[in-house]
Prior knowledge:
Number of strands: 6
Structural class: mainly beta
Strand order of the largest sheet: 1-2
Order of helices and strands: EEEEEE
Shape: flat
Largest sheet: 2 strands, antiparallel
Number of domains: 1
Number of helices: 0
Distance between the termini: 14 Å
Helix content: under 10%
Amino acid sequence: GSMVAGYFNKFAPGGGQVIPMEIHPYLTAGTLFMQTEYLPYPLSNVDNVAQIKCRRDYHQVDWPITSRTYQFGVYVDEVLQVFAPFSFCVLANIGNG
């Protein structure tokens, strides 16, 4: 077998460059998810392409005792902030999967 470790972008400035690829263990076979980590524009005023806004960090709620077991829940309230939606891409049905 073989494994792809990167993609050569021949249209990148400077004659092209290899874009490294990472394997996501839970992504459906035959699907490619791409995102950029930074924008190559000098005055974009965007620090992060996407970031997590944490409205409330992880917390535990101990529910009232109604039986012989202790009921509890662990919760978090987060929002994904995307500042450059054009920097994400999903390709599906690639190869045999």
